[in-house]
Amino acid sequence: MSQKNRLDGGLIDRSETWSFRFDSQYYKGHKGDTLASALLANGVRLMGRSFKYHRPRGPMTAGSEEPNAIVELREGARKEPNTRATTIELYDGLRANSQNRWPSLAFDAMEVNDLLSNFFAAGFYYKTFMWPAAFWEKVYEPIIRRAAGLGSLSLQDDPDGYDKGFLHCDLLIIGGGPAGLAAALTAGESGARVILCDEDFLIGGRLNLETYEVGGMTGAAWAAGTVARLQAMPNVRVMPRTTVIGAFDHGIYGAVERVSDHLAVPEDGKPRQILWRITSKRALLCAGATERPIVFENNDRPGIMQTSAIRAYTNRWATTPAQQVAIFTNNDDGHRTASDLVAKGVEVVSVIDTRADAPTSSDYDVIARGVIDQTWGRLGLSQIEVKMPKGGIRRIKCGALGVSGGWNPNVHLTCHQGGRPVWNEALAAFVPSGTLPPGMTVAGAANGVFSTHGALQSGADGAKAILADLGIKASAPALPEAEDTPVRITPFWHVKTAKRAWVDQQNDVTAKDIKLAHQENYVSVEHLKRYTTLGMATDQGKTSNIAGLAIMAEVAGKAIPDVGTTMFRPPYTPTAMGVFAGRAWGMEVRPTRLTPSHKWAEEQGAVFTEAGLWLRAQWYPKPGETHWRQSCDREVMQTRKSVGICDVTSLGKIDVQGADAAAFLNKVYCNGMAKLPVGKVRYGLMLREDGIVMDDGTAARLAEDHFVVTTTTAKAVQVYRHLEFVRQCLCPRMDVQLISTTDAWAQFSVAGPNSRKLLEKIVDDGVDLSNDAFPFMACAEITICGGLRARLFRISFSGELAYEIAVPTRYGDALVRRLMQAGEEFDVVPYGLEALNVMRIEKGHVTGNELNGTTTALNLGMGRMVSKAKDSIGSKLSERPGLTEPDALKLVGLKPVNPDHKVPAGAHLMTKGDKVTASNDQGYVTSACYSPNLGCHIALGFLKSGDTRIGETIRLVSPLTGVDHEVEVVSPHFFDPEGERLRA
Amino acid sequence: MIINHPLLGPRDSSEFVYLGDACLINRPDWQADDALDQFIEYGHTRDNPAGLHRELWYHEQGDRSWLVVTRNTVTHEITQVELARDVARAEGRSK
C-alpha cells in the first residue's frame, strides 16, 4: 500500500525514490516532495495533536502558513521542534516525530482534555487558578505546561553553523510568483541590480500549483523558463529557500536563507542557514495571498484543508488527501479545485457552495446555499453532514474536505513599519494601505490582484514604476497570455449554529471563545487577541485572524473594518534563534584581545581571565601550588621583597597632541593639568558631566604639546568617545588631536625594591634612573636594549618603587623575555591580576569596584582634587546638594576584628546595635582580599562619614551569604601609608 | 537605519553609537550667576518630540566623527546629517 494516494503528473522527480520515517513507520516519497505531501501520498492524514485539547490534526495548508501539521524534525542534537511538515523538503532518510502526544499519535492520553473542553474556554486559566496564589508557580503552572504544548528541545548544543551576510540592490523582489517573476524580468532586463527571494525551494508561487496555461505552456514551465533566464543575468540574484522575515528602516530587509535544511546534514563548511541583511533602494512585495477557512462544527479533522492546498497537492505533488473529496466554498475557487481533482481522476463527491448563484457543473454535484453542519471521523474525516437549503441534512462520505472562504493578501511585511491594511469590500479582504514602509510597493495577489494576468501585469508595472523612480530606463518585456478571471465571492465566515468550531487551530481558539470574550466585554481586538490567544501561535494567525475578526464584528454588530486589524510583526515565519546569533557563539560572541606577552604567559602556564575584551594573566602557578591563593600570595610577597613584572598593555592609552593639548586635558580632568611640567606624570580624575566619577588614570607630558593619557582597561572605549565629544562638540576650535594608541604600545609594570636595578640592566647608556634624575612621577622617552625606542613612566599602582615601560607592540614579547632574563639575579616574578589587586587594595588605590558609576570624587576622598579655579567637565554638578551631604559615603579600609574572618565584597555595613534594615544601612564593601603582608583579610568600602569614623568597630552583614561579624574601620592605606617605598 | 555621513557617505547605523539630544552641544557658562541651575537643566531636561529631533551620533566603528543627525522619531526618516564640530562652531562654541 505504498503511496496509495499518489496521482499522475506533478513536479516531483519519480526517478528518485527516498525512504523516510514518521514516528515508528517507514514510508517512501520522491525528490520534490515535502514531508506533508509524501505522508498524504502514503495515505497519512493524521500528523499532529493540537496545543490545548490534543485534538487529532492533519495539514490544513500546503505552505508556511500551516497551523496544524507541526512536527519534530530530525533526532539527537539536530532535533528541531515545531517544524511545519508542509515546508519540510523531503530528503533520503528523513526522520520526523509527532509531538504533544503520549503515548502515541493515534492514542493520546491527553485527549481527555477535549472531553473537558467546557472547562477550558477563553480565560480559563485566569479564572480558575487565581488562588491560592502560592499554588501558581509550584502546582498549576507545571501541570498546565506539561498538558499543553508543542515540541520539545534536544537540550544539546546545536552542531550546525549559522552565518550572516550583507547584500545590496536597487530592487528587492519578495516572492517569486507571477507578479514577482514579471517584475524581476522587467527590472533584470533593464540592467538594475535585482534580488529575488522566495521561501519555496521551487520558484513560481501558484504558477507551480495551478493548471492554467501561461503563454501557451504550463505555468510551471513558464516559471522554470523565466527563472533560468533570470539566473543567466549577472545583475539578478535569484534566492530560493529564502524567506524575507522583516521590513526595517531605510529599505533594510532581513532574510533567512535555508542553505542546508533540505539535507540530512549540512555539507562540510556550509552553514545551515544564513541571515541576510539586504539594503535595497526599493522593494516590491509580491508575497501572494493565503486562502482562509470557513468556521464550522468540527472543522479541524485531519483531511479538512484549504481548497488551494488540495489543488497544490494534486497539481504539484501529484497526491490527494483522499480518494473521495468534498468542497465547501463561498467563491469560485472551490470549483477550480473540483475540476482539477476530476481531471486527475479523483472523485469529487459534492461541492457545497454557500452562494445562491453557485456555478453548476456536469462533472460533480453542486449544493447551492448549503452549509456543513457536522463532520465525523475520530482520527481523520469520514463523513460530513450538509444542511440542505430546503431543510434536512444530507450525509456524504468523504476522506477530505476542501474549504475556501476567499483569499487574504499577504500584507504582513507592509505592517512592519506601522502600516495598517484597509478593508476592500469587493474582495472581502484587507489590502495594503497607503502607509507602506518607505520604498516599498506591492504587486499581484498581495495587493489584491488575484488573476494570473493581473499579477503578471501588476508585477511588470510595479517594476517599471520603480525603475522610472530610480532613473533607470526600462524596456518592457512582452508578457505571456494568461487567465484573467474576476473574483466572485459572497462573504461567509462561519456557520452560526456551530459550537465547537475552530478559528485558530494552532492555539485551539473556537468561535465560542470569541463570543465569550465579547460577552466579557473584551472590545478591543488587541484585548480579544490576548484573552483568547487568537493569532498568537507560531503561525501568527495567518489562516485565522480574519475569521476571528469577522466573528468579533458580527457579535459586536460592527463592520469588519470598524473592529480593526491586529499588527503583524517580524519575523514573517518562525525563525531559528541560531541564525540570529550567527557565528556569535561561545567565545565568538565578542572579539578576544590578547596582550603582547600572551604567548609567553601561556608558556609559563598562566591562568587567564577576561578583562573587558582582553584575556589577562590572573596568576602564574608554580609546580606544587594547588590553590590560586598560594600563587597570588607568593607573587605579592616576592614583588614587595624584590621585583615583579605585570603586563599592563590593556590599560587604555590616548595620545593627545596640539597647541591646546594642555588646555584640553584641563577641561576633561577635574584636577589641574595645565601646569604639568614636561617630563612629569600626574594622576587624574575624570568626571561625567553629572559629577559622578567616570574614570581615573594618568597624564604624562612628553612635550609642551604632547601628552599620553591612560585609562582603565574597562573604560578605554568610553573615555575615548567622551574625549572626542568634548573636542568636537564642546571645544571645536581647540588645536588638539586625539588617537587611541592602546594597541600600539606594549606596556609592562616593573615593581619592587629591585625594579631600578633590573631596568638599569636594559636601558641604554646615558639613561640615568637615579632618584634625583628620574624621581617618582617622572616620564621620559628613552632607548633600551641597544636603540629600541621606549617610554618610561615612574608610576606605581602597587605602592612599590615601580616603573611602567612601553615599547612598540611588536617588541612586547621580546621585552618581557628580556626583563625576566635580566631579573633572574633578583628572583624576578611575573604577577597576575590577582596579585595586582591585592597590592592595590593594600595601598587603598581605587579601581572599577570603587569607580562604579555612583561615586563622586568626594566619596573617594578626593573631593579637594575638583578644582574650583577652572571649568572642567562635571565640576559644577558635583556641587549638587545631594552629592555633598555631610554624611556622604567616604572610602575607608576595613579589617575584621577576628583575623580569621573574611570581609566579603558586597556585604553591607551597620552601626553596632542598629537593626539590620535597609534604612539603617551605613555603606558597603567594594573590594576585598587576603593581605599576605598584614596576615589577615582586608577590604575597601564606602561608609557614611567614614573619614571621621576611623577606629570605630562596625557590624558587617550579608544576609544572603550568612555573614554577620564585626570589622574595624581603618585608613584605606593599609601598607606604607607615608609612601616611602614608592619614592625610594 | 542608514546615516548619510557628510564625509563618508551612507553608513549603516550599527557603525554608530547614539548619545542623545544635540542640545548637549550648548553647554552652559560655568561662571554664570545661575550656573548650577543651568547645568542641572543641561544635564537632565530633554524634550521628547514626536517628529523632528536633532541628535548626536558617534561614528565609533568609522572615522570617530560626532554627527548631528536630524531624524523624525515617528518615521525614522533622516533629513539632515552634519558634522557636530561644524554645528558647534556655527553656534559660537570655541575653546
Brief summary:
With 984 residues, chain A is of the alpha+beta class.
Structure explained in plain terms:
The complex is a heterodimer of chains A (984) and B (95). Chain A is α+β, with helices and mostly antiparallel strands and 984 residues long. In chain A, 21% of the residues lie in helices and 27% in strands. Among the domains of chain A are: 1-159, Ubiquitin-like (UB roll) (Roll), CATH 3.10.20; 164-289 and 409-470, FAD/NAD(P)-binding domain, CATH 3.50.50.60; 301-404, FAD/NAD(P)-binding domain (3-Layer(bba) Sandwich), CATH 3.50.50; 492-556, Orthogonal Bundle (Arc Repressor Mutant, subunit A); 885-984, Aminomethyltransferase beta-barrel domains (Elongation Factor Tu (Ef-tu), domain 3, Beta Barrel), CATH 2.40.30.110. In chain A, the strands form 13 sheets. In chain A, strands 8, 9, 12, 13, 14, 15 and 28 form a 7-stranded mixed sheet that branches. A 6-stranded mixed sheet of chain A has the order 41-42-43-40-34-44. Chain A is elongated, with a radius of gyration of 37 Å. The N and C termini of chain A lie far apart (96 Å). Chain B has 95 residues and is an alpha+beta fold. Chain B has a single domain (2-90), classed as Folate-binding fold (2-Layer Sandwich). Chain B is built from 2 helices and 6 strands. Chain B has helices at 35-44, 84-90, and strands at residues 2-5, 9-12, 17-21, 52-58, 66-72, 78-83. In chain B, a hairpin with a 7-residue loop joins strand 4 and strand 5. The model of chain B has no long low-confidence stretch (mean pLDDT 96). The interface between A and B is medium-sized, with 28 and 37 residues.
The CATH class of the domain at 164-289 and 409-470 in chain A is identified as: Alpha Beta
The SS-based structural class of chain A is alpha+beta
- Biggest interchain interface, per-side counts: A-B, 28 and 37 residues
Radius of gyration of chain A from the CA trace?
Answer: 37 Å
Unreliable stretches covering 5 or more consecutive residues of chain B? none
Average of pLDDT of chain B:
96
Number of domains of chain B: 1
Which structural class best describes the helix and strand composition of chain B? alpha+beta
* CATH level 1 class label of chain B: Alpha Beta
User: Residue share in helices of chain B?
Assistant: 10-25%
CATH fold title of chain B: Folate-binding fold
Uncertain stretches of 5 or more adjacent residues of chain A: none
Number of helices, counting only DSSP H or I runs of 4 residues or more of chain B: 2
Largest sheet of chain A: 7 strands, mixed
Distance between the termini of chain A: 96 Å
Round the Cα radius of gyration of chain B to an integer and report it. Answer: 14 Å
Sum up the overall morphology of chain A in one term: elongated
| Level-2 CATH architecture of chain B | 2-Layer Sandwich
Q: Roughly how much helix do the residues of chain A carry, as a percent range?
A: 10-25%
CATH homologous superfamily (4th level) name of the domain at 164-289 and 409-470 in chain A: FAD/NAD(P)-binding domain
| CATH level-two architecture of the domain at 164-289 and 409-470 in chain A | 3-Layer(bba) Sandwich
